[in-house]
Amino acid sequence: MTLLAAVAVGLAVAIVSVAAYVTVRQQMYQNLDDSLIQRAGQAAQKGVLTNLDNLQKASADAFGLSDIRVGVLSATGDKYAPINSPLPPMGDDELQIAQNQGDQASLRTVGVRNGGSHFRVVAVPARFCPVREPCNYDDGLYQPGALVVAQSLGPIDQTLHNLGIVLWAFGLIGVIGAALAGNAVARSGLRPLARLTGAAEHVARTEDLKPIPVAGTDEISRLAMAFNAMLGALAQSRDRQRRLVGDAGHELRTPLTSVRTNLDLLAQADKRGGLRPEDRQQLLDDVRAQMDELTQLIGDLTELARDTPQVRNAELIELSNVVEDAVIKVRRRAPGLDWHVQLTPFPVWGDERLLGRAVTNLLDNAAKYSVPEGTEKRSDGQPVGHVTVRLLDGVLTVTDSGPGIAEADLPHVFDRFYRSSEARSRPGSGLGLAIVKHAAEQHGGMIYARNVPGAGAQFTLWLPHAATQTR
Questions:
Q1: Are 348 and 282 contained in the same domain?
Q2: Does 251 have pLDDT greater than 80?
Q3: Catalytic activity annotated for this protein (predicted)?
Q4: Given this model, what pLDDT does residue 218 score?
């Protein structure tokens, strides 16, 4: 910012200075030219200086005009000047004026600035009397010539030199002042950014995600608010990670403890002579069931650990096919239920594996709570419950025939490892619905739960159409 201010002011000063210098120089030269042409023209018309006798007797010093040189150039190239006075510069331009005798004057600059002989030379056509007697009585005595007047440019050069020094001095002062002001403004404006940088370095060094104070509404304040929002998101992510790790450790400990206990019992029984075949088979079945539960729990944890904002490598899939496959799979595991299925085609962009797992979890949850606890089959052969599955316009609703969800539990049913008091006696890890929510969010959709009067709980999953999604 300091360099930018200095360069900007320097350019502005340079442009203004050059314009002022050129304008003043042009105006001074224009005024001098007009004055020289007017005076030379008047002198040529009066014929005083174009008379040889008058010209040689006159001297510029006599009039206090030592910076002016006067002379006459004849058409034949003869040069005349006052006695004891130097000739003005005469060349081809002046000779053409003398020979042509038109109504134009010539103007040119001779010499170099500050060289001691810098003149502005003007030549006007004149009738020259080359004899000492007046030619008034005989016009035939007059000869074509040119009256040449040279004005020294020393005063103008000195004025322009002084003007250039003043412009350079004030321009330099302006650039230095602009640099100092820009530096002060930069330091003042970037001080909040320095504090923000220090806060970022503090976070990187200490992992303390405490937000930094924000004051004002400028761009730096907006950056600080965005930084605080990022810190908040990081804090939430870290809290979720810690909670996931803590809950996972707690949930994994139970099946691992059960497996270890059963294996210890099996080992001790083998030392005492072994168990009865039926007891041994029951113990192995318990271990196998606990291992299945542990495998499912690890899979759920792995799925939730993929905390990506959206699905990668999405493909076009037919949601109705995914739901139909899930219904077939869950119906085998819950043969005692009556299934009411209504599906319409609906294409989506997404991960077929993740969506299939989410729908399967919804159907497993509905099947689990549609069967009264402790009941597998009715004595009259009728279904013990029913599940309604509908997919219309991208909205999947799964309604069970269970007791519903308690109002206090509704806001938490999609939380990780959350299990209501009624669900704790049933198998499960408390991650199934969390995976459903995770899948819905990754596909740009949403999921919510409610109780349906006269039925049980109803879960509604909405996904956007493939035509409105980006890959």
A1: no
A2: no
A3: ATP + protein L-histidine = ADP + protein N-phospho-L-histidine
A4: 75
Q: Which residues constitute the domain of residue 38?
A: 2-160
Q: Please answer whether residues 462 and 392 qualify as being in contact, where contact means their C-beta atoms are separated by less than 8 angstroms.
A: no
d(CA 75, CA 228): 92
Mean of all residue pLDDT scores within the chain? 80
pLDDT tens-digit series, residues 314-345:
789 999 999 999 999 888 878 778 899 999 99
pTM above 0.85, yes or no: no
Q: Is 447 helix (H, G, I), strand (E, B) or coil?
A: strand
The CATH number for 410's domain is 3.30.565.10
> What are the tens digits of pLDDT across the range 55-110?
766 665 555 456 788 888 888 888 888 877 788 888 888 888 888 888 888 888 88
The Cα–Cα gap between 201 and 282 comes to 59
Identify the pLDDT of residue 88: 86
Query: Distance between CA atoms of 314 and 348, rounded to whole angstroms?
Result: 9
Task: Round to the nearest angstrom and report the end-to-end CA distance of the chain.
Answer: 42
388 and 259 in a common domain? no
CATH number of the domain enclosing 299: 1.10.287.130
**Secondary structure element (H or E) that encloses residue 68, with its range:** strand 68-74
Q: Are residues 133 and 263 in the same domain?
A: no
- What's the CA gap between 8 and 48, in Å, rounded? 58
Of 103, 132, 160, the last residue of a domain is 160
- H/E stretch holding 69: strand 68-74
For residues 103 and 35, state if they share a domain: yes
Same-domain status, 330 and 420? yes
